[in-house]
Every structure is written in C-alpha cells, then in structure tokens.
Design a protein that fits this description.
This protein is an alpha/beta fold. Helix content is 26%, strand content 28%. It is globular.
Amino acid sequence: MNGRIVAAFGRQYLARMPDGSLLPCLTRGKKSDVVCGDTVEVLKSAEGQGVIENIGKRTTLLYRSDAFREKLIAANVTQMIVVVATEPSFSDEVLARCLVAAFDQNLSVLIVLNKCDLPGKLASERLATYRKIGYRVLEISALQDVSALLPLLQGHTSVLIGQSGMGKSTLINALLPDAQAATREISTVLDSGKHTTTHAKLYTLDENSSLIDCPGLQAFGLHHLSLGRIEQGFIEFSPYLGLCRFRDCHHLHEPGCALIEAAASGRIDPRRLELFRQISASK
C-alpha cells in the first residue's frame, strides 16, 4: 500500500493511508531517511503496524546540515513560509539561510511577520530590504486575524519554519482549529507521551493544500551547498555574479569585486553582503 508520512517521532513514523486511517510505521534498518511529506510504500503487518519498504520519488527535499550531520525537514513541499515576529527579535542570518535553502529547492517563499498587534515598527523596517528585492512579506497577528494568509496557502504543500518564540504554534492553531485534535489523534495512535521528539507534522487544509509544521529552530546549516549556490540564493546578487575581476572571488576584500562595488554604490544592501560573508564562512 502507498501512504503519506504525516508525522515523525525519532525512528517511528505515521502514514496516512488512502482510506484516511493512520498507520504507525517503522523502517527496516537503523538508519532512516524518511521524512514528513514523503510518499512511501508500506507493507502492513498483522499487528496493525507497517514497515516502510520504499520511498517515492521526491520533487523537493528540504534539509539543513553542518560538518557532521544532516537534518531532514520535509519532502515534496512547494512553498516555504518563514515566520518572524515583532518580538522577540528575529535573526537576520537565520532568515537569510532559510531563503537560500528555499532557493536551492526552487520553492516559493512567503515571509510572515507575526505579532503585529504589538507596538513598534522596527521588525517591519528590517524586512523592507526583503520586500525591495522581491520577497512577499505578510504582516499579521495570529491572535487577531489570519484570514489574509489562507489564500496564500491554496494549492501548495507549505512548510512552516521559524525560530522558537515567533508564535508559530499560535499561527497553526489559528489556521487549523482542529490542529490540537489532530495532534491528540497522532499521540493516541502512537500511544504517545513517550514520543516527544517530533520532527514535523503534516496537516491537510483541503484536497489540494497542506501545511507541514516544523519545530522551532535556532540555526539552519547550509554545509551541503557550494559557495556558488549560496551566491545564487542571494537573489539580488544575480546581475553582478560573474563580473568580478577574479573568477574565484569570495567577495571579501578582493579588488574589482562586483558585489563590493554594488554595495558601496547602494545597488545592493551592504547588510545582505555581510550576511553572505557570514554564511559562506561558516555554512
């Protein structure tokens, strides 16, 4: 049978089957690269549990990595929604890293500025650069009204990403009144309480739309991406790539660097160039 992974708890997974039922699943080996959003081929056992035999072909795979390991996030998504907030303050670098990862997988991007019912305009001003270079930015308060977000989810499998404290859980509950019931159903099927390391959960919005919620993160490693791919992920750099005097330019202090010259003349934001340097130095 074929199913779709809707939750991951360590090495135990939950697949939604064609009849709508939830089936707990395991993999055969100790190492698993199954992730929320995957379509899987499942062999059902007599004990009401499944064994994942194969993973279907993926259209996208979103993950982060450092020098030692990779952390799978979600598969087969079409849109990344990065949630930031007016408070606590969000990290420019984490946001930039998320956008590079989205570019690498050719995902649509929406930046959601949450908690706009709180006073202060600093967060909105910090996002002006992203609006200027073409990113969609939606300002809402999850506690008041999320209706403006709903049409932007239609037809997409969206993945919701954000640092801890940005109000992502509140946003999920506002978008999906049955989210807590769905979580309880997952816990019941898995006899949970014991399974606390949830990697991601997939919620169905309608026949053509779904939303994958990920745990809050404080870092987004891009060790798996080359310097060139990170350059391309800074989308406003595109007109200047390949124009530097030196082919292997790292855009630090090299003479004739097209990006340095563009930043000095205001054609690109100097802060974005500094973020690129930080990310490419550490990945």
